[in-house]
Design goal:
heterodimer, A: alpha/beta, 10 strands, B: alpha/beta, Rossmann fold, nine-stranded mixed β-sheet, Proteasome assembly chaperone 1 (chain A)
Chain lengths: ~260, ~280
């Protein structure tokens, strides 16, 4: 049972220092930046689809895409590189950028494998959309945030919701995500996923956000994999992409280490 | 802060009154603005993008249709018949950046012809010094009309000037001088523990009040005391008070059923799902 005295208040409520306008701001951090291993002659990259993978099932999917080529990385100066491996690993604290050529589409995938704080999300979102990368369409993959969801959540159930920009909803072309309901009114999304969709809405870009549940689970992994195979038909996955043991081991590690108990 | 207009819309100078919430205990100001937007059937005209506001996104907050219509952190709505612009804020301000945010908002308001700003907010019951149970659910106000914060029109509505307002108090003075003269922050003051009398000038409504006042706009803050809990009744009380000075076109302000208020669709789940009764 939740302890109403000591539990962190729900996100709509405030600590006293949140409402104190004389609270000094945190020391400023150096700006995030993009590093590319290939040049585009100073022009922004214009992929037909930009995919930002934040949820573990989506990170797992794109980790096993065999036809991808790493073209860059996003550096958040406060995130240390120590412990990262030379070859891409799901355990790395990294935000690598990949190019995938799939049929006639040029696809750029950003695998966000470190936590981006709410305070940094605005800067990171503006970096990924509208400056050096100008996508035609954007797909963001995140998990349902239990602290912001106003319905019932059970780890035994797997499901997904979506949110879309006005342009995506009104477009006569086929929607990117089909077969999903919209996130119910009253529930919210915050952090990087929200910041990215907001930038898409403001810049009138066709943007879709897919929210899956549970955060770590083989059922949500299958759900996202099937959805992405429909969105990206013909994409090639590595032969070990169905390795359940490896998936569950890494999922358990992340669930344990990233738990709010340890913040 | 940048404004992104919806197709064919703009910040209309004819809507010379601006209504907005100040973050506060129980989110009462935000709930009250939600009620006003919903009941006035105000039309969204655009969005503000400010790096000092934390990001959030959700489904249509006011109605089940159009389905999937996005709600963003800072949205502007117009009620043209009442010459009102309403700004709704859905997420907190980055810690320590409230004054900066208030300055940005004040700059936009002044540049776009706003003349009168109404700030809706709440105060913590725990801070209430002079408890007067005979006054019932009293609305307090603070106005830029005079140096002591009083305003005749507000008094006529039976509202009481916030008695704890003292413009000579060091934190009110510090706030004014920081905003008007852009002086460097006083670290001694910032790191000093808050005393009881420091509570009011330390709140977000104080930053908005001071910033809009510095821009030469008329500001009225409407405040009510509350505790954190089910704050919907407090929101109704505050919105009811605001409607007395905002609504010029009563015909546009009719709810369905017995009341004149239209409850926003998102309020159905504002306090989360019902308890799990399968235990019993």
């Amino acid at each position: 049972m939740e302890d109403v005295i000591t539990d962190i208040p729900p996100p709509s409520r405030f600590f006293l220092e949140d409402l104190n306008i004389f609270t000094p701001p945190s020391p400023p951090l150096p700006s995030p930046f993009l590093l590319f291993s290939i040049s585009n002659n100073g022009k922004p990259f214009r992929p037909s689809l930009l995919v930002v993978a934040i949820s573990f099932p989506s990170l797992h999917f794109f980790h096993h895409v065999s036809s991808k080529k790493r073209i860059g990385t996003l550096i958040l100066p406060e995130i240390p590189f120590s412990g990262n491996s030379v070859e891409p690993s799901l355990r790395d604290k990294s935000c690598d950028i990949y190019a995938i050529n799939n049929a006639d589409e040029s696809i750029v995938v950003v695998s966000v494998q470190y936590p981006v704080t709410a305070e940094r999300s605005h800067a990171v979102a503006k970096l990924l959309i509208g400056e050096q990368i100008n996508p035609e369409r954007v797909l963001i993959l995140e998990s349902v945030q239990s602290r912001n969801f106003r319905g019932k959540l059970s780890r035994d159930d797997s499901f997904a919701f979506k949110l879309e920009t006005s342009l995506e909803r009104s477009s006569k072309n086929s929607p990117l995500i089909t077969g999903l309901d919209y996130l119910p009114s009253g529930s919210m999304v915050d952090g990087l996923a929200a910041a990215l969709l907001v930038q898409c809405q403001l810049r009138k870009i066709r943007g879709s956000l897919c929210l899956s549940w549970p955060e770590f689970g083989f059922s949500s992994n299958s759900l996202i994999k099937n959805m992405l195979l429909k969105v990206l038909p013909g994409i090639e996955l590595a032969s070990n992409s169905n390795d359940e043991d490896s998936f569950l081991r890494i999922a358990r590690e992340k669930d344990y280490l990233d738990s709010e108990l340890y913040t | 802060m940048e404004f992104y207009a919806e197709e064919g819309k703009k910040l209309d100078e004819a809507c010379s009154t601006l209504v907005l919430p100040a973050l506060s205990v129980g989110n009462v100001g935000q709930l009250a603005v939600d009620l006003l937007i919903s009941s006035l059937r105000a039309e969204r005209i655009g969005y503000f993008d400010d790096p000092n506001v934390l990001p959030c996104v959700g489904n249509n907050a006011y109605a089940p249709s159009p389905p999937g219509d996005l709600s963003l952190p800072l949205e502007a709505f117009d009620s043209s018949s009442n010459r009102l612009t309403l700004v709704q804020q859905r997420s907190p301000v980055v810690k320590g950046m409230m004054v900066e945010f208030a300055k940005n908002l004040a700059n936009v308001a002044a540049r776009n012809g706003k003349k009168h700003v109404i700030v809706l907010s709440s105060l913590d019951f725990k801070q209430w010094q002079n408890i007067d149970m005979s006054s019932g659910l009293q609305i307090y106000y603070l106005s830029s009309s005079s140096t002591d914060g009083t305003d005749e029109d507000c008094e006529k509505h039976g509202w009481k000037r916030l008695p704890e307002y003292n413009p000579a108090h060091k934190r009110w003075e510090y706030l004014s001088s920081t905003i008007e003269e852009n002086i460097v922050q006083d670290d001694d003051l910032l790191f000093e523990d808050l005393k009881e009398e420091d509570y009011y000038p330390s709140l977000p409504f104080a930053a908005l009040f001071s910033c809009f006042k510095a821009k030469g706009l008329k500001v009225t803050c409407l405040l009510c005391y509350c505790s954190e809990g089910d704050n919907i009744p407090d929101a109704f009380q505050l919105a009811e008070a605001a409607s007395k000075i905002l609504i010029q076109s009563p015909n546009d302000f009719e709810g369905t059923g017995s009341g004149r208020w239209i409850v926003p669709f998102s309020w159905k789940s504002v306090y989360g799902p019902p308890p799990d009764t399968s235990l019993f």
